[in-house]
Amino acid sequence: MIRVLHVLGAMNMGGIESFIMNTYRVIDRNRVQFDFLVNDEENKYAQEIEELGGHIYFIPPRNRGIKAYKTNIDRFFTEHREEFQAVHLHAASLSSVYVLVAAKRYHIRTRIIHAHSTSIKGSKLHYVLHIFNKLRLKKIATHYFACSDKAQHWMFDYTGRFAKSEVINNGILMKDFAYDEKKRGEIRKQLGIESDEIAICHVGSLTKVKNQSFLIDIFLQLKTINPHYKLFMIGDGPLKSQLQEKIESLKIEDSVTFLGIRKDVHRLMQGFDCMVFPSLFEGLPVALVEAQASDLQVICSDTISGMAKISDDTTFLSLSLSASDWAREIDKKLEGRKRKDNTELIQKKGFSCDTVTKKLEKIYLD
297 and 274 in contact (C-beta within 8 Å)? Predict the structure, then answer.
């Protein structure tokens, strides 16, 4: 057995975490085991990880002090370097790659950098560090992954590593998302969705990049077209209270439900009709793959890679369009639409977790 150390902020219910856990559940754990190095002491997947044979290690984040951060990473590898044959860093940018620098120093042979975004949140210094680390990336990492072509360009252009980088699809467990009419009825009853109501959903952390404030503007316009629209928001984050205040000021609180962080997103999607995803930027959201696997109508911003389009029922719109424009397009797409089983399509497009996991397993073992 070899052990792979996955490095990221936390193991909660975000898209990156879903992708990793999907892989972890499917991979041959007699040959490959996962451990996790995180910066958040609260991890929703902690119990399942322990049950699968993995461990979660915690070190304080870099924003609490760069010197202490580096010291903690060095101490970690001093204590655990014999345990790992690979380090897999999941990152939105190259502003912090010290964990791979340390992994090389401690002779861990396989060092993977995995791009999951197409831009950066943070100060100008973070962007400068991102560009600087591009120039030395080939001396640090051995493998270069990205979730989409746009993420690939963001992370690896001008590094001399772009030609060696490859896109790893965000695989999902297809059987969990296959459309089922009976389950749809059950979920709609649980959520209080009437037969004549149209359920719009959004899955994501409540943060600026997800652009939920614009989503609420779109929903307000949908309500003027048809008062039977409802909005369900799955996720949590720092902007929740601000979004709730906006919803109350628009007097649409009776039509909007915050469902929080959920482990049953695959069940909930059965009951919805459309996912709206107006992000400012993204890599390739796992939620969009899941929505298409459930055969939801998907309307998303064109800032997201075209690789996210698996189904013909996915439409990209510009964020320069008005909320009214978005609402009219959504309402038009939903008119008379029927759901179907998209399992075969997801498999054909290479987003099956089984396919993705076999690819990663071979890389780890090689």
Answer: yes
